[in-house]
Amino acid sequence: MAGQRSASGIFGTQPDAGANADWMAGLCPRLWDVPLQHLAIPGSHDTMTYCLSRKSPVSHTQPRLLRVLNSALPCVTRPVVLKWSATQTLDVTAQLDAGVRYLDLRVAHMRGGPARNLHFVLLSYEDEAAVARRGELWPGVPCWWANRGKPEALIRFLEEKKSGGRPGGLFVAGTNLTESLRRVLAHPAQSLAALTLPALPALSAWVREQRPGPGPACTNIIAGDFIGAGSFVTDVIGLNQKLL
Length: 244
Fold this sequence. Notes:
The protein is of the alpha/beta class. Helix content is 30%, strand content 6%. The chain has a 5-stranded parallel beta sheet. It starts with 40 loop residues before the first strand and ends in a 6-residue tail after the last helix.
């Protein structure tokens, strides 16, 4: 797999690519016994969307209008959907080498692909009876998803969630921007990257202000889009110094 993929060419190589590959092993010994839910852990949102292509079908979970448009005009709809769906340019190996330790995976069978490329046992956490029978499963990891298209609104949402207290275990604060279908259809030439990259300075500033730990306003996993752009991973890892 290629270490970095970018159709638009707007993504440069991460300045510290590879420097964080073993950051957990390099933690200060005073942090070795700190529970994972009290550490700052970098994550990637929709980790494997770098695999998407114009041949990728539109998910059945998308709004009906989008699915109808895809059925009628796939050659027009799918390129637009791709530009607004691809959230990462680094492959999984490169993300791990960059220091990401939380992967947001969506497992599905690719039409026309090998019938059994990988073996997974899939279980929905919404099936409470099935989950109750499997005591070895971790509980679901809560995610603070703002569903906002502007960084200021996203940050306000995250601050409101913090004011209500953090969950007891692992949880994710998502710094990923999300646009409405109306805006996507109104701006087919734009992309999620064009929305996200100008917002990175504001989002990075918010990240650097956070603090891990058990306190009610503390953060844990912080996940973002295009983790190879800017200093996101390094900023999250650096928060652990505040525990010393």
